[in-house]
Specification:
Radius of gyration: 13 Å
Shape: globular
Largest sheet: 7 strands, mixed
Strand content: over 45%
Distance between the termini: 40 Å
Length: 112
């Protein structure tokens, strides 16, 4: 079993920045792919960014150039650095790991 715990969400003004963290624990030694998805109210869940080991493999069109993902393999942690936030970035951000493992989500709210 794999557990994913997100942190770092909160309220920020438009143009600001946040860093999300996701710590993985449990049976994680075979997991190479991890990343972030998000879901805004009334909208489907969408990809934000994915890594395979330390290589960025996918970045969502709506966040490219503003968000970046990184992974600290030694700490079993994946980060999402979010810059130039806009109200459209508001939503619940979920950590994901290969094998359909999901965290509980962390709320990000961007005020205009």
């Amino acid at each position: 079993q794999v557990q994913l715990v997100e942190s770092g969400g909160g309220l920020v003004q438009a143009g600001g920045s946040l860093r999300l963290s996701c710590v993985a624990s449990g049976n994680i030694f075979r997991i190479s792919r991890m990343g972030w998805y998000r879901q805004a109210p009334g909208k489907p869940r969408e990809l934000v960014a994915l890594v395979r080991d330390n290589e960025i493999t996918n970045v969502g069109d709506s966040v490219r150039g503003r968000f970046t993902i990184s992974r600290d393999m030694a700490k079993n942690t994946v980060y999402l650095f979010m810059n130039k936030l806009t109200p459209e970035d508001t939503g619940t951000y979920y950590c994901w790991a290969w094998g359909d493992h999901w965290g509980q989500g962390t709320q990000v709210t961007v005020s205009s």
